[in-house]
Every structure is written in C-alpha cells, then in structure tokens.
Amino acid sequence: MAKEPRVVSVNISSEKGTAKHPVERIIVDERGIEGDAHSGAWHRQVSVLALERIEQFGVHVGRAIRPGEFAENLTVHGIDLRRVSPLDRFVIGEVDLEVTQVGKSCHGDTCAIYREVGQCLMPREGLFCRVRHGGVVASGDPIEHVARPLRMAVITLSDRAAAGQYEDKSGPRLAQLLESHFAGTRWRLAVDRHILADDATQLHELASTLIRDGVDAVFTTGGTGIGPRDIAPETVGALCEKMLPGIMEYVRVAFGGEHPGARLSRGVAGVCGTTQLYTLPGSVRAVEEYLGEILKTFEHVVFTLHGIDRH
Q: What would the mean pLDDT of 216-227 be, rounded to a whole number?
C-alpha cells in the first residue's frame, strides 16, 4: 500500500542564493515563511522539491544531497511534482499554498549547489507557491495535492446546428486546437462544448453562468458578422469588464489582406473576473487563424487575472 504523501523536511535560510537548513517546524503567514529570505509580497514565497528527485540527482552526480541544499523550503515525498500544474494547490493542515511558477532561471555561480557540482535541480523541477492560508508546518506532516485544470467552454452559435440541420465543424475544431496546444505542457485541460441558436438571451444566460462558475475561458464561434442574427459581439462584449481590442484588431489586419471578408468580422475579446472571453467567426479557417493569435498571450492573461506578476 502506497504511503501517504508527506513533508519530509522544512528548510529556511536567511540569505538568497544559499542552501537552506532543516528546522523542526516553520510558521507560514501571508508573506511566506517567517525567517526565510524568500518571504515577501511576491509570487515565489514558498518553494517545493520532491525527495525522490533529489535522491535521483544525488546518484547522478555521485554525491548525497540533503534536504534544503537546492534551497527548497519544503522537501516532500509521495507526489510526482512533474505532474503538478500552475494554480494547483498544496494543503498541509490549515496551510494552503497555490502553485504560481514551475522552475526558474538558474543563478549559476551564485548558487551554492551549482558551484559544487555544476548542475541544479531547482531550475527544471522546483515549484514555487504563494500562500493562500497560513499556519504551521513540520516534518512528517501529510500533504495533499489539489489539482486544478484549466476549464474552457466552446459555444457554437448557429440556428441550423442547434436544430440538427447542420454539422458543427468549427466548435469541434476549436476544442481540438485547444487540446493540441496544451498537450505535453504542465496544464491539464477540461473543455466543454455547447451548441446554441443565434439567440442573445440564451448566450447571455450561458456565458453568465460560466463566468460565475469561474471557467477560465469562453470561446464562441459564429455570429460575428453583420447579419440580422449575428449577436455574439454585442452579447459577449456586454459581459466584459475590460476589453482586449488589440487581439482582434491584429487578426483582422493580419488576415484581411488575403481574405477581405475577415475585415468584416466584428469579433471581440475581453475579460470578466478571471474569465477570458473571445468571439470567433464560424468558419474552421477563421477559428484556426484567430486561435493561433489568441493562444500567444493566453497563459500571460491567466496569470495576470489571478494576480500573479511573473516579471
């Protein structure tokens, strides 16, 4: 029977760029760990490494590595940290940590372990967290990994598709592109698809519900033209707290030369709370073109909406 995941060592240091030393327990507050050099009002308050990977690294370099030598605050056992995503959480008793960054730039010669063996595990596999709720953590405490997928909603707007008279192609293609883009990354994806008639009331109700539920992104396809039933930009735009006009303006300019009809698209982009909202045209080609540009800034927007400044 597998052992319960646990914290095997809690470690602190008074200076950055140095190895941390194990202590009996740590006090975690809104700034991080009391007495630790990395405590502060930023997104990398607490660092985490897996004991299993530390031991493997030690075998590779021919030297035993003790907890804290990679400057991690928490050395944990029983969790494959390579499968942990940003915005996942670690719960240790009343302490609640949110993952904000995977890996970091190597300090090189200013890093103690790098100076000795010429390599470091933290830049590749270290996890960095901010504190959601503080408390006390001690060696041996059980730790729970709470996964949080990126939740996406794809809404196809089409009277004919909603009536079963037309096969929806743009919605499935959009979902496929999202899954393909995030495949092989740390992110886990949960994509839900919906088909609605070109009805402003139905769209407003569904999008409002998705926003209240905290969905990370809502994509509509169809309904961005100038026809009497094209209601996506007005309906979705009214839900946005902030507009992101640059994305759609760029797409219209970039693809309008080759496809003049793209200049007539009225698609909008914006945010409401922590939800991104995008209205895309209904053709498969347009979905591919628009999404290709949207995804270039998508993760940055996710972090920004969650108050994580990674600069």
A: 97
Q: Are 239 and 207 in contact (CB under 8 A)?
A: yes
Mean pLDDT of 31-38: 96
Q: How far apart are CA 44 and CA 127, in angstroms?
A: 9
Q: Hey, what amino acid is at 13? A: S
Q: How far is CA 38 from the centre of its chain?
A: 22
Predicted pLDDT at 261: 82
Q: Which residues contact residue 205 at a Cβ distance below 8 angstroms, ignoring those fewer than 6 apart?
A: none
The dihedral formed by the CA atoms of 200, 203, 204 and 209, expressed in degrees to the nearest 10: 170
Q: Which residue has the tokens 């009391």?
A: 34
Q: Do the beta carbons of residue 125 and residue 53 sit within 8 Å?
A: yes
User: Is this model's pTM higher than 0.85 or not?
Assistant: yes
* Residue whose structure tokens are 């907890």: 67
* CA dihedral sign of residues 106, 109, 111, 112: positive
Which three-class secondary structure state does DSSP give residue 87? coil
Q: Residue 186 and residue 206: Cα distance in Å, rounded?
A: 29
Report which of residues 88 and 261 the model is more confident about.
88
35-39, Cβ contacts within 8 angstroms, sequence gap of 24 or more: 36/12, 36/73, 37/12, 37/13, 38/73
Q: What is the pLDDT of residues 151-194, one digit of tens each?
A: 999 999 999 999 999 999 999 999 999 999 999 999 999 999 99
pLDDT of amino acid 10: 98
Structure tokens belonging to residue 82: 């390579």
Using alpha carbons, list the distances in angstroms from residue 130 to 26, 28, 40, 96, 133: 15, 10, 10, 9, 9
- For the sheet containing 135-138, what is the strand order? 32-33, 25-29, 135-138
